[in-house]
Specification:
signal; transmembrane helix; transmembrane; 76% helix; 4 helices; 104 residues; elongated; membrane; Seryl-tRNA synthetase
Length: 104
Amino acid sequence: MKKFIYTLALIFSLGISFNSVQAADKPAKNPTELTTEQTLQLEKIKTRVEEIRDMDKSNLTRTERKALRSELRELKGQARAVSGGVYLSVGAIIIIILLLILIL
């Protein structure tokens, strides 16, 4: 049984190292380059977030604060979509951790 687990771990580690070697051969793209339209949209989002942050929220009602929170969440999602990138959800991270525990 130990031999099987060690063999499986060896195959897994070799598979990971092979993928990283392949990734090193490819030229790196610069994902931070944005078009002018995307930069304008990102600037609008930033200014709105700063406006919300600088607001005096002490005199707002509960529904208004809730609306501001939902607007900030929406703006955050838009900013992520514009800037690009890879994001893992909490569920995906938990599944990865469970798989690693089962393998090791």
